[in-house]
Amino acid sequence: xxxxxxxxxxxxxxxxxxxxxxxxxxxxxxxxxxxxxxxxxxxxxxxxxxxxxxxxxxxxxxxxxxxxxxxxxxxxxxxxxxxxxxxxxxxxxxxxxxxxxxxxxxxxxxxxxxxxxxxxxxxxxxxxxxxxxxxxxxxxxxxxxxxxxxxxxxxxxxxxxxxxxxxxxxxxxxxxxxxxxxxxxxxxxxxxxxxxxxxxxxxxxxxxxxxxxxxxxxxxxxxxxxxxxxxxxxxxxxxxxxxxxxxxxxxxx
Length: 253
Hints:
eight-stranded mixed beta barrel, EAL domain-containing protein, Cyclic-di-GMP_PDE-like, cyclic-guanylate-specific phosphodiesterase activity, EAL_sf
C-alpha cells in the first residue's frame, strides 16, 4: 500500500511511502505489528524487503509512464543492508525497472542500531552515491539517534508519530518536535513528519519549519489502484481547448 507524502506549505503530493500489509483470509488486512516480529524471528526480513522493493519499483515505473514523478520511500532493515551481494542485486533490480534512483528514498528505522562501521556504512554510502536518498525513520524513539545521525550519511529524518500525535495538546511534545526540526535544518536535512492527523498539527508543523508530512489528515495508505484514482482527482484539471484559447489571448496582451 502507498501513503502520500505532501509538501506541507504548497499542499502538493511529492511522493509516497510503500507500506507492507498482509491480507489474511480470516482476519483481513493486518498491520506490520502483527507479522513483522515473526518475520524477524524467522529470518524472513531480507526476502520480504526484496519483495516490497520489487513491487514498489514496478509501481513507480507505471507512474513514470503516466508522467507522474513521485518519490517512493521504502523501509529497509539492518539485515537487508548487511546481506551478502545486496548492492549487486539492487543494481540489477533497479536497472530492470528503469528506476530513477533520485526518486527513491530508503528509510532506516533508527531502532535497528546500525552503526557507521564496516560493510553497512559502505553500502549506505554506495546507495547514496547511486542517487538514492537515505532517511532516518522514527527519529527520537531509540537510544542511538544522535550517534546514527552524526555517523551515517542521511539526507532526511522523519519525526516519529509519537511526538507528532500530541503536539496540538502537549507543549512539551511541541517543544521536542520543534527542536528536532531545528536540528535537522542545521544539519541540512529534509524534515518529514509522520502521523499527521489534524489541521492543528499540520499548522504547528508548518510554523515550526517542517517541510514534508504524511498522515491520515491527508490520506490513509492506499492500494496502487486506489492511489491512482485518488491522485488523478487530486491533480489540477487540464484546461479545455476553449480555456486554452482564452489563455492564449490573455498572453497576447
